[in-house]
Every structure is written in structure tokens, then in C-alpha cells.
């Protein structure tokens, strides 16, 4: 058979089939295990060895080191994981991703799984029409699994027979006998291949097929596997180019870890491969150096043992790696915290996992609005024009940030809602949209309050001591409500109750009524100042509106309204 343009299209089509199957299966597993993934990461401690085990378990579970890395970055930003702990998880993810090679080697080459693919799809397909989202997710797992191995079967058939087409490898043969240089060349080929297909699993599958069909010898296939280890980090670093400083540091740590491993293994490669060859000859009845059919298992052993040894070598240096990446990717200063930190990384995984990032972004949003309230308090208390102008500028800047975050969060959540979501996640999307809207409204109200104060200052009007005390009192109550709100936003939503937030709302309302009565008495006593008292009244009324939006946030988290809470309280 000749290998022309049509055959090349077949090869790329088979590769696309494989990648699509891997994607469907991985996303299905992530939907099924989404909550467990979060629980695994939340159980992390500062123990780096436990971090490695966590990364391995998580990646082996979802069959995607990219999903693990993205989730790790989110937890680093949220403060649930330190950069040091995240490096341990990434090391474990490198070991976990080798499970894919074993699946392909054992099932894909030893068992004709493609023969069972259609029955597997027949089992999974009806599940797609069930009302339960968990059943639909299992359908994706089964169908993706079947498609993956159908793609692998087509991939094996699409690779041409070298005996009939020896000219295909003519261009590679001139690079195959250059010793150490050949190893470097095939490391580069593996790197480029992974970047092109955007999947280390797909690149690994292609390498296994090429080696199994006799395209390349065992030692050069091993070099390609090393290149794929580098290629997967380049893909992550490219994605992190448009991300924040935390994502860049995590990607840089992944790159340093993998590149260092490739450097030392290249030097030890001849000895390393000889040991694997001797082991397989003794225990498996064949050497990957002489029997192409043994190469897939040989490469899987090489891939796993390399990543385990590399992790054992470097797990004691995670602190050094952390310091190195912090120096490599320094923070740009205070403005860094004003950018979206959890979404907008250019990496959109499954809808279920994306909600975790949106929730963390919403928690950050809450902190920003609380900071605006702190600036407003300072603005009321300071008495120098320079400090006033500085605070007015800060509040205006933060209000623009709240608008941008609300807009981008809404767009992101709309994209998330387009995916297949469980009923719980659908409610969570609705809740997060409502929370974002309330937080943006808080920003608008505080900004308008600052504009009122600006006019106040321009007229050389000042608050009397009673008015200042009144505003401090209601802002104290608001700050306490903000603290509860932000604690709730950072907590597991199912654990949040409305009770404490409602208590803070009662305090705000009582304080506002108290100030209102005092304000009315000033009017009755005819000590009313039309300039200061009008703005003073507007400010404490606006403060009470901020409190309303704060309680709305906790209501959206719990799904419980104030009236419902009051009724329950009176009934009990």
C-alpha cells in the first residue's frame, strides 16, 4: 500500500478519534467524581508526601493531569494549598498520568477492546436518556472509553506497514544512529508532537503504536516519551501566559520538575533501559530491544519508573523549587489581586469543575467589596483633601473592578451552564449569578456614597461629631456583616446557615432606625442643616441597602430567605 495524502488524513482522523474519546471519558469521570476531587484536595496537609499521593490518586482517577493542575492552581489562589504543597501534588500528577500508558499497553495492545466497543456503547447509550445527571455522566464514561479504544484501533490500522513502505522512515533513519544526538533529536520530536496534538496521552498512544509497528526502536521511543513529558509542561505554560501569577508559578514549577528529570535520565538512559530489558527478558519472556510487541509494556515500565524515581529525587527540594519559581515569576504588585484569579486562565475544563473556580472568584469578589467599605469608613474620618482625593480615586477604581468581575463572571457562568450539569450544579450556577449581581450592586452603592461625600467635601461642609459617630456605628455593623458574608463565601456552601448573617442584618436595620429617629429629632428641634443632614441621611439609608445586599448573598448560598428563617424561629 502507498502512503499518500488520503492515508495521512486517515492517520490524523484516527488520532482525533482517540483524543475525542479520551476527552469524553475524562470529562465523564470528572463529573462523576467532581465532589470527591475537591474532597481529596481539601484533605491536603503540609505533608509533601501526602501531596504526591493526592496528585497521583486524583490524576489516576480522572485520567487528566491538566484537570488536576488547573484545580491545584485554583486551590493555591484560594489559600487552601500553598505553592509548596501544590508542587507535591503536581509531582504526583506526573505519576498518575502514566496510568494512561498502562491502559493502552495492556488493554489496547493485548486485548482487542475495539471488538467490545459497540456493546459498551450499547450499555452506555440508554443511560444518556435518564433524568439523573449521575447516570448521564456514567454514560459519557462508558462511551468515551469505547471511543478511545476504537480510535486506538483505527490508529494502529492507519500507521502504514514499514515492510511494504520502507521509504517512510528514510528521513528518520539518518538520525537513528547518532548516539546521544539521536536521543536529543527524538526528545525534541516527542516535545513537538505533544505540543501539536495538545495531549500527552495522545502523543504517548501514537508513540506506542509507532514502536509496536516497528517504526522506531525501543530506545528512541523512550526518548520520545521524555519529550512528551516536556511537551505537556509547555502546553500548560502557553495556557498560563494569559493567566495570573499563581498559575504561571505552578506551570513553571511543573516545567522545572519535568525538565530536570529529563536531563538526568538522558545521561542514565543506556543503563536504565538495559535494566528494563533484562527484567522483561527474565520475567516476561521477551526484550523490548528485540521484540516490537514488547515495546508498549517496556515503555510503560520506563515511563512509570522514571516519574517515580524523579519524584523521589526531587520531593525533598520542593521548597527550593518554590523559591525558584517565585524569583522567576515575581508578583507585579498590588494590582495583581485586582485581576480575575481563578477563571480566565485559558483552560476550560468540565462544567462541574469550572464551578469550583467560579466560587473561588466570587469569594474574592466579596473581599473586594468589603475593602471598598473600609475605604468608605476612612473617607468619612479623614479631614485632609489629599487623603480624601486618594481614597475617592481608590473607591472609583474598585467600583470599575467590581463591574468587570461581575461581567466576566456572568459570561463565564453562562458558558458553564451550556455544559451538562447536575441539578445541584444548576442551582449553584443560579446562586453564583445572583451573588455576583448583589456584590456588584454593593460596589455601585458604595461608589455613589463616595460621590455624595465628594460633593460634601467640595462645599467645605463637615460632619458634626454626632453624625460621624452615627456613620461609624452603622459601618461597624456592616463590617461585621461583611465578615460573616465572606466566611460563608469561602466555606462549603452546603455547610452554611443563615442564622449568623441574619443576626448581623438585624443589627444593621436597628442601627439605621436609631439614626433615623435621631435625624427626625434634629428636624423637630430645628437644628437641621440642609447641606450636612441631607447627605448624612442619604448615607445611612444607603448603608442599610448595602446590608440588604449582604444578606442576599447568604440567602443565595443557603437557598433560605429571611422570612422563612423568621417563620422557623417563631414556630420553634
Task: Please outline what is shown here.
The chain has 572 residues and is mainly α. It is built from 21 helices and no strands.
Q: How would you sum up this structure, described in words?
A:
The chain has helices at residues 5-42, 48-62, 65-78, 83-96, 98-110, 117-124, 133-158, 170-173, 180-197, 200-212, 218-240, 245-284, 295-314, 318-328, 351-381, 385-417, 423-458, 465-490, 499-524, 530-558, 562-571. Helix 1 (5-42) packs antiparallel against helix 7, helix 5 (98-110) packs antiparallel against helix 13 (295-314) and helix 18 (465-490) packs antiparallel against helix 19 (499-524). By secondary structure, the chain is mainly α. The longest helix is centred in the middle third of the chain and has 40 residues, at 245-284. The protein has 2 domains: 5-328, no CATH class; 350-571, Phosphate transport system protein phou homolog 2, domain 2 (Methane Monooxygenase Hydroxylase, Chain G, domain 1, Up-down Bundle). The chain is built from 21 helices and no strands.
What are the key terms here?
elongated; disordered C terminus; 2 domains; mainly alpha; 572 residues; 0% strand; Methane Monooxygenase Hydroxylase, Chain G, domain 1
Order of SSEs, N→C? Answer: HHHHHHHHHHHHHHHHHHHHH
Structural shape: elongated
Strand content: under 5%
Overall number of structural domains: 2
Mean pLDDT: 78
Total beta strands:
0
Beginning-to-end CA distance, first to last residue: 83 Å
Structural class: mainly alpha
Radius of gyration, CA atoms, in whole angstroms: 30 Å
Task: Give helix % range.
Answer: over 70%
Q: What composes the largest sheet? A: none
Helix count equals: 21
Low-confidence stretches: 333-338, 567-572
Amino acid at each position: 500500500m502507498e502512503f499518500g495524502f488520503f492515508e495521512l488524513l486517515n492517520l490524523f482522523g484516527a488520532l482525533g478519534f482517540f483524543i475525542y474519546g479520551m476527552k469524553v471519558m475524562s470529562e465523564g469521570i470528572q463529573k462523576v467524581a467532581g465532589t470527591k476531587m475537591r474532597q481529596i484536595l481539601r484533605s491536603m496537609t503540609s505533608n509533601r508526601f501526602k501531596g504526591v499521593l493526592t496528585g497521583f490518586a486524583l490524576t489516576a482517577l480522572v485520567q487528566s493531569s491538566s484537570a488536576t493542575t488547573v484545580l491545584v492552581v485554583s486551590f493555591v489562589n484560594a489559600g487552601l494549598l500553598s505553592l509548596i504543597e501544590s508542587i507535591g501534588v503536581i509531582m504526583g500528577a506526573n505519576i498518575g498520568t502514566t496510568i494512561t500508558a498502562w491502559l493502552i499497553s495492556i488493554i489496547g495492545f493485548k486485548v482487542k477492546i475495539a471488538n467490545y466497543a459497540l456493546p459498551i456503547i450499547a450499555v452506555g447509550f440508554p443511560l444518556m436518556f435518564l433524568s439523573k445527571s449521575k447516570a448521564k455522566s456514567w454514560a459519557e464514561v462508558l462511551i468515551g472509553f469505547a471511543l478511545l479504544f476504537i480510535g486506538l484501533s483505527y490508529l494502529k490500522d492507519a500507521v502504514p506497514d514499514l515492510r511494504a513502505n520502507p521509504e517512510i522512515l528514510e528521513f528518520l533513519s539518518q538520525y537513528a544512529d547518532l548516539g546521544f544526538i539521536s536521543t536529543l533529536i527524538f526528545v525534541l520530536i516527542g516535545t513537538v508532537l505533544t505540543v501539536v496534538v495538545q495531549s500527552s496521552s495522545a502523543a504517548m498512544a501514537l508513540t506506542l503504536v509507532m514502536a509496536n509497528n516497528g517504526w522506531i526502536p525501543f530506545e528512541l521511543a523512550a526518548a520520545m516519551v521524555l519529550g512528551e513529558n516536556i511537551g505537556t509542561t509547555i502546553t500548560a505554560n502557553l495556557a498560563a501566559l494569559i493567566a495570573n501569577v499563581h498559575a504561571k508559578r505552578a506551570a513553571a514549577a511543573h516545567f522545572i520538575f519535568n525538565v530536570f528529570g529529563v536531563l538526568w535520565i538522558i545521561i542514565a538512559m543506556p543503563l536504565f533501559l538495559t535494566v528494563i530489558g533484562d527484567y522483561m527478558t527474565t520475567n516476561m519472556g521477551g526484550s523490548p530491544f528485540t521484540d516490537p510487541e514488547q515495546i508498549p509494556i517496556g515503555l510503560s515500565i520506563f515511563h512509570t519508573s522514571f516519574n517515580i524515581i524523579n519524584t523521589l529525587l526531587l520531593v525533598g527540594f520542593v521548597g527550593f523549587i518554590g523559591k525558584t519559581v517565585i524569583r522567576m515569576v515575581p508578583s507585579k504588585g498590588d494590582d495583581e489581586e485586582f485581576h480575575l484569579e481563578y477563571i480566565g486562565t485559558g483552560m476550560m475544563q468540565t462544567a462541574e469543575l469550572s464551578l469550583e473556580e467560579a466560587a473561588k472568584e466570587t469569594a474574592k469578589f466579596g473581599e473586594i467589596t468589603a475593602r471598598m467599605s473600609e475605604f468608605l469608613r476612612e473617607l468619612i474620618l479623614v479631614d485632609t483633601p489629599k487623603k480624601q482625593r486618594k481614597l475617592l480615586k481608590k473607591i472609583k477604581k474598585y467600583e470599575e473592578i467590581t463591574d468587570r468581575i461581575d461581567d466576566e463572571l456572568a459570561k463565564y457562568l453562562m458558558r458553564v451552564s451550556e455544559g451538562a450539569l447536575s441539578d445541584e450544579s444548576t442551582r449553584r450556577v443560579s446562586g453564583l449569578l445572583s451573588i455576583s449581581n448583589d456584590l456588584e450592586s454593593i460596589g455601585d452603592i458604595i461608589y455613589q456614597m463616595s460621590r455624595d461625600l465628594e460633593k460634601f467635601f467640595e462645599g467645605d461642609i463637615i460632619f458634626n461629631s454626632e453624625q460621624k459617630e452615627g456613620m461609624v456605628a452603622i459601618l461597624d455593623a456592616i463590617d461585621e456583616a461583611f465578615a460573616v458574608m465572606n466566611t460563608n463565601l469561602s466555606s462549603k456552601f452546603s455547610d452554611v446557615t443563615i442564622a449568623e448573617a441574619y443576626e448581623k442584618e438585624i443589627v444593621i436595620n436597628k442601627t439605621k432606625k436609631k439614626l433615623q429617629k435621631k435625624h427626625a429629632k434634629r428636624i423637630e428641634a430645628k437644628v437641621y442643616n440642609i447641606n450636612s443632614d441631607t447627605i448624612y441621611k442619604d448615607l445611612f439609608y444607603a448603608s442599610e441597602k448595602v446590608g440588604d445586599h449582604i444578606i442576599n448573598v447568604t440567602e443565595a448560598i443557603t437557598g433560605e430567605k429571611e422570612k422563612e428563617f423568621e417563620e422557623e424561629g417563631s414556630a420553634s
